[in-house]
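Q: Structure for this?
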Amino acid sequence: MSRKLTLAIAALLCSVSLLAQEYSGGVKGTVINRADKEAVAGATLVLYQGAVQVASVSADQDGNFLIENLKDGMYDLVIDAPNFLQTRVNVTVNDGYVKNMFNLSMTRVKQISEEDADDMAEFDDEGGYNDNPTILFGQNDVFNNIAGFNFSNVRFRTRGLASESQEVYLAGVKMNDALTGYSPFSLWSGLNEATRTKMSVSGAESSDYGVGGVNGLVNIPGTASYVRKGWRGSVLTNSALYRLRLMLSYASGPLDNGWSYAFNVSTRLGGNDWIKGVYYRSFGYYFSVEKKFGEEHKLSAAFMAAPGQRGAQMAATQEVYDLMGDNMYNPNWGYQNGKVRNARVRKTHEPIAILKYDYTPSERFNASATVLYRFGKNGYTALDWNDAADPKPDYYRNLPSYFKYENDDLQRYSEIKAAWVEDSWKVQRDPAVTQINWDRLYNVNRDNRDAYGRARSKYVQEERRTDQRDFNIAGSMKWRATDWFTLTAGLNSRINRTEYYKVIADLLGGDYFLNTNNFAERDFAAQEARYQYDLDYYFANGKAQVLGVGDKYGYDYYARVANLNGWAAGRFAVGRFSATLAGKLGYVGFYREGLMRNGLFAGVWPSGGEIIDPVSGQTLTSYDPKTGAVISSYGKSAKANFFVYTAKANLEYLIAGHSRVYANIAYLTDAPTFNKSFISPRTRNTLMSGLTTSKTFSTDLNYQLALNGFNLRATLYYTTIKDQSDVMSVYDDLQNAFTNFALTGINQRNMGLELGFKVPTPLTGLSVQGVLAWGQFIYTSNPRLTQTVDNSSEIVLENEVVPYWMSHPVSKKDASGVAILDETGNYVLDYHQKHYVPGTPQLAASLGLSWNHNYWFIDLDADYFANSYLSMNPLYRTDASTAGTDNVVTPEEVEYMAAQEKFAPCFLMNLSVGKSWYIKRKYQIGFSLNAKNLLNNKNVKTGGFEQNRLVDNTQDQSRYYRFDSKYFYMSGFNYMLNIYFRF
Amino acid sequence: MKKTVIFLAAAVAALSACQEWQPVFTGEYKAPASYEKVTLEPTHTLAELAAMYNQGNPLTFDWDSDVIVAGKVSSSDETGNFYKSLYIQDETGGMELKIGKTSLYGDYKPGQTIYVKLGGLTVGVYGYKALGTFNGKPSGGSGMVQIGYMYEYLPGEEPEYETSYMDATTIIDSHVFRGEVGEPVVPVVLDENDLPGRTATLKDCPYLGKMVTIKDLKYDGRIFTLVYVNSNKDHKASSNRIFLSDTDYGVTTWAMSKNKFLENLDKGLFNSVLIGNSGDYNYGTVYDNIETVRRTATAATVSQYFMKGNTEVVIRTSGYAKFADTEIPLEVLQGKQLVDVTGVLTLYQGGIQITVNSLDDITFHE
């Protein structure tokens, strides 16, 4: 097949030189990807004269290679690289010259990355569960290519690290969210053509675009000349995400007059086979122009966005899934007039504008500078209510277990009621019970008339907004000073102002809503000022603000973040050795600026005077019980400032032309993100105490081979991260308020191995491929916990150690399972049960067959996943929770309360088939069909969380019980069918 | 090839043609219709239903029973003084409907006619105690007949109540039906003669369970409230019970929220109160256990005693009511002002209680 794809390199062949000298001849050139003209690093080049192998070398990181000491003559050059078709070219060495082949282009085996990098169902992030892809597609690496495709279903994370640890760049600007660090793929989802070209490194390697972290870096150039030339269109249907995707793109390629231009538009529409209520109404647009001024200067501009709406999915307890007989049950939707309506919808339109300048005065030096601005709106709707029953269908009081629980200590004896409820869920499947009852919400709202006959909504749909203004400047340069030394360096700066607020999205049949705090109203019924969300409005108008659709309410504040980084990397290459030393110095600063004065945390007047409620005469200004500082919802918080640095070394040794050993070592510090730094950002300016930078140490050792269709990469890695912080915010209906858990001092250790291989078989075009990722990701510290409630300045737990976070003791038991006491009356320790970092299988393996022939490809893979764990909440690991109401700790309580759930292992199979045709050598038409989860396994837990709540109303009053955990499951059998054309 | 491509195109078209396009195209949803107002023919009046009950024997109606009662909603839980239940009334009397949900005033409006199908529900009494004397005064008497659900309990245990809340949406919606929303009920103004005796039922006092107005009440300087040493522990154990009764203890609010209770506790108002049931004061004083009391304190419901002529009338207010901590005017406490009250009239162990919907239902005059 590759023979037919002989590349159009003839035009690139140089004229022959004249000078003759024996054995001074050679051949050199650069191996590039045909699609994006980017270098293919590490390609293997074997030179034959007739049937005799003459030489074998590897291309370096920039795709360059050189074979020296060649006699004049005719040679065959065979080029191999992982996931590229083998390429053969004839080379003639004449007159002892080193023949420059310039660019030798290779064609990718297939485009497996038709999926968007963020093509994951939108998950709800309540409960601290977040979901982001963590495998960077499109890498020239056998492990990442196979794992990226086969492991995405189970939310596999490379090396067990969170998505924040992967740096994603656009046009040279780091795009990870300024407030959360999350990877930003959703900003350009659906713009696959515009963002297809990527340059990436994995692990702790350094890249040309930045020093990077310890889990890879990808840069998407994103400007016109990087978009594949010609027209491309595709029609796609995907049974797990959306019914229909339409995409069209065109790129001019570099024109003779120096211009290039490109556009890409797309839409993704509809629901899916598995999760009701989840739908897409998403669009994408991208335009870019580029102009080259001579050989030295290039100016590019691009503008893109992926506006749209996506219905979200919410986790539920196993009880609910079992009642519904469906692990993909979604409680977020209900019927409204017979139509499915989702209460939780992500609504975004966040454009990105890019202006980039490239300067290439010589082959040895190039530099670029980018200005990038991200803006627009990001909203997420949810139901809100004032003095009314919780509308969630799976609210725990609506379930059979609330009425009848097998353990009588919970005092739930009502078997008949439980049977009624079970019947309504399991047998009747009455959507008014099992889903949101929109009819009731409208009726309650419409009937809630005030004295003037106007309907005050009790239920509304709110839209939580996170509107960013993100301004970035980045510059970098690369200087090949000598043959053995290359210097890259850069500077980047970011200024971000994000406004967090809520607006009324829908009054659901009512006429208005009030800007008052229902939860505070319960506690401070007699003090109207205290339950105002907007105290300044109340003081100015003497009453709470009456809200209509679109009005801000609840909270309103700016997050202001600034950072500045400088970095440099020097690469030394001597013979087969090369080494890179890289470093970064940076500053991160942020603060909160409250724009709405909450009656509970009124702060002080600008003059510094206390705020007194003229009606009740009470002082509204409150003080931190510990520090004595004013607690304020309004104005600027203290500034958090952090200095961070990174130091890295990468070493590489070419064993032969086709294999290399390389090792990386890195130490870096990172500032905590804004979203994990305030104890309750919705209500006050208070920073967590003990905030500090996290410290990451990582090292890895790798072996890579690419020869004659054999591809192998093996890696051992070891990473520790110390002093991480986290904040979880959960609605607690016992407190009637949001409860915030702030954790500091979380340490973890991730170590393991990665193996990826592809081995050709004697059968033409057929290879065996596989990956193995085994790791152990554990917690290595007991962090400190501070618990606060949004409604009160009281600190429920103050910087207390969470003693059962990293492990819990398991005591020795007798045959009947009763804990044994020693002669002094103490329990006897058996062992400590480790607790694991959740969010990914710690063992993942895949084995498959891959067949490529005559423009057909077929891949069949079998995957096995194990050692996945549920994420833990800190509350269940505290002394107070394990001691229970009677304050006596028993092994039973500890082992029950502190245990971490391990998910069952699973076995999956995937199949991909594709074929393309060329018509008149000009048009190409093709299709690919990816069928995932062929065995239709519907019992694979991919994540979830523990509820941050305790059952305390028990008969014995000696211990607490957990609330049931909530889970997400993987979809059953699903397919994606894509038809594309190119010309 | 052509056929393959056409086939694939048809496949995409077929696979993407599905019914969930509504939110995709419009994002608009039409407002649902208003509830259809139900009209049912009641088979029994509330008094007739109450008469079917025999003391001590909760009456559970068969599934296929066709007994239906109807009444207008008189109570509202908007201020939190009523909790999880509502009162309905017809010409013959009023009755509590133990729904078991909070914020009921959003779903059942004051003045709305409610129909209750009794089949599967249970009618029982709350607050009955055999007649007797206590401290030389008559005690005990009737409680109130309520509509609720069967009270389930563990084998071998004593049932604590005769009925339980319906609780489950599916039980409520298959038994309780919304009718027309009419004008709010008009309270009947009662004289002292109209007030029920200790053993009254709907047979001899049609005002029980109804919204009534009683005028010219005079403060009697006594409260009654029951709190616990450890509110997480057994509420029936004498050793855990603290009765505040027979005097006012300096409690000058209609009830006590948790904060108010703690404030009063820390003022020492309850320090010398003996723990235990009457005649079983063997557990020390509140002060002896003050740390536990403080740690597990909850809101406290308070009965404030008034006199209508020579008849005792209690205004009973929940500690969870929004107006719990509102001060009773000093003039009232000093007996200089009288109180007019409008609320639901009930009997608890023969004693007359009034529960108000809101503080607007209590007025003061010379």
